Recover the amino acids of this structure.
């Protein structure tokens, strides 16, 4: 049995691993999440997931398998981060309002300094959102630490007209891709 460590403070990612029957331990890592100049969204999340996984692997037993993940929102190849404050969140939601955007999530697994990565790209269509709705959502506290300032599994689900892709990928840990990495490592999942 592999010992799995999640290099993330995200309760959503930990809960998603539990859906695969994995009781992972948590080792929070701190890395610089600044996008590189002209870095594409997919390259950005792949890099961060790998860096998180590798950083986590340097803090645990050599026999442990460390999973890192990162999610970003993008519109027209422009990476949309987490909102710093309400005006920033409002600016993000105005860009998302009434249109499509991409949600890119990468997952990486490191064991003995070898890292494998996979990426999941999804498309999300938002309804038109007015300022009153934006303010009310911000005041819930939910959007503060979320890529794009929203959680698909939370209150903002009411704004989502359609998704094309993986619900768990949009949440922050694509279970299909994560399962593929685990199977390749010899881990027997429940399903």
């Amino acid at each position: 049995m592999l010992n799995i460590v999640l290099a993330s403070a995200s309760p959503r990612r930990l809960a998603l691993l539990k859906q695969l029957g994995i009781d992972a331990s948590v080792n929070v890592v701190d890395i610089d999440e600044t996008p590189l100049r002209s870095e594409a969204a997919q390259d950005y999340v792949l890099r961060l997931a790998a860096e998180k996984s590798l950083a986590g692997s340097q803090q645990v037993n050599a026999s442990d398998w460390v999973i890192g993940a990162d999610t970003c929102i993008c519109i027209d190849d422009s990476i949309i981060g987490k909102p710093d404050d309400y005006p920033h969140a409002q600016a993000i939601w105005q860009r998302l309002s009434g249109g499509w955007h991409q949600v890119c999530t990468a997952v990486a697994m490191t064991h003995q300094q070898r890292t494998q990565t996979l990426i999941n790209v999804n498309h999300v269509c938002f309804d038109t959102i007015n300022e009153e709705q934006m303010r009310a959502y911000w005041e819930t506290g939910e959007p503060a630490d979320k890529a794009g300032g929203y959680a698909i599994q939370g209150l903002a689900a009411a704004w989502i007209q359609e998704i094309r892709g993986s619900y768990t990928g949009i949440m922050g840990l694509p279970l299909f891709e994560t399962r593929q990495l685990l199977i390749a490592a010899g881990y027997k999942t429940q399903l």
Remarks:
- The longest strand covers residues 114-126.
- Residues 107 and 118 are 6 Å apart (CA to CA).
- The mean pLDDT is 95.
